[in-house]
Amino acid sequence: MVFMYRITAVARPRLIMRLAQIYDQQLLEIDRLSVVRDRDVTAVRIEVRCDEYLAHRVHAKLYRLSDIVHVELSNAESGVISEGDIPNPNAPSQFDPMTPQP
After folding, report:
1. 42, 36 in Cβ contact below 8 A?
2. Rounded to whole angstroms, how far apart are CA atoms 9 and 68?
3. Range of 19's domain?
4. What is the CATH number of the domain that holds 53?
5. pLDDT digits over 85-96, tens only?
6. Does residue 92 sit within a domain?
7. Which of 18, 67, 72, 76 has the fewest CB atoms inside 10 Å of its own CB, making it the most exposed?
8. Domain-located, residue 63
9. Is 18 inside a domain boundary?
10. Secondary structure class of 32 (helix, strand, coil)
11. What is the pLDDT of residues 75-84, one digit of tens each?
12. pTM confidence score
């Protein structure tokens, strides 16, 4: 199955490297990767082919990264299957990815 991760993160150095390392550790190849940076917010979209168990495992591992604010996991066939509403304690408290940043 094809799974897509929509990741919102604080724009910091080596963010993409750390994201790629998570997928590499699970022996997954990234099919598509898109990165958009707007001020202090980075939006990353990653598509991979794997089973559902591994997709959820990667989803949990992404929240361990310090700069990750929100991760949405979706399946290309059925839409959103897991949304991370758990706040990241390592994210800056004033950071709100839905509002313009100074």
Report:
1. yes
2. 4
3. 2-77
4. 3.30.70.260
5. 444 555 555 555
6. no
7. 76
8. yes
9. yes
10. strand
11. 866 655 554 4
12. 0.73
Residue 84, domain member (yes or no): no
- Asked if residue 64 lies in contact with residue 36, where contact means CB atoms within 8 angstroms, the answer is no
Check residue 41 and give left, alpha or beta (phi > 0: left; psi -120 to 50: alpha): beta
Q: Write the single-letter amino acid at 75.
A: N
| Separation between Cα atoms, residue 25 and residue 65, nearest integer Å | 14
Reported as type and span, the H/E element at residue 72 is strand 68-75
**Spatial separation of the C-alpha atoms in residues 23 and 4, rounded to whole Å:** 12
> What type of residue is 98?
M
C-alpha torsion 43→60→18→15, nearest 10: 30
37 phi/psi in degrees, rounded to 5:
-115, 130
Q: What is the total count of domains within the chain?
A: 1
